[in-house]
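We include the pair:
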Amino acid sequence: MLVDIHTHNTESGGFSSIQGKTFSLEESFLTANEKEFFSIGFHPWFADIYSKDLLQKLEIYAAHKQCVAIGECGLDKYSKVPMEQQVVVFGKQIRLSEKLQKPLIIHCVGCFNQLFELKYAFQPQQLWIIHGFRGKPQLARQALNVGCALSFGERYNAASVIVTPIDKLYLETDESKLSIEDIYQNIANLKSCKMEDLIAGERLLQHFGA
């Protein structure tokens, strides 16, 4: 089973996918797609919309059986939202991930030291998946060493793909026009394996009864 771990594309192409959704779209999505999977969270670009009311709404959506991850959430040095606010909002979602026992889909740009510090501080039991990873292999090893998994899309550092163990390697389209099948084939070629050997995403959905 090919699994697109993070996408904003509405057409799955017949493959299993986890749709990254916003609060404004969630209600109609749930009504129309009773068998689709999704994730939801406060993106660091929009962490300034955080409020207690929206956090309560997030908890309701995140507890839904179709929600298999919290996010995308995280830290971004280029966000207009102050880093202190980003850290607070990200921390709320880390706690929610632990409470609901669902993984985090993490957006991290230029803030990996802070991300790793938070990983040490919270000591989470749930999986952290850094989505759209494009960093060098040294950074990939750092992320893997602190217990994060990595998700690769259309663009990636080939050496980082090679050093990532298959059980920590997820695949995504995000906003790419490439199909998830094409991305699987590209990564399988790099890993010198078959597409069906890339099973991290399948195992994640199996955990939620897919």
Observations:
- The chain has a mean pLDDT of 92.
- The longest strand covers residues 67-76.
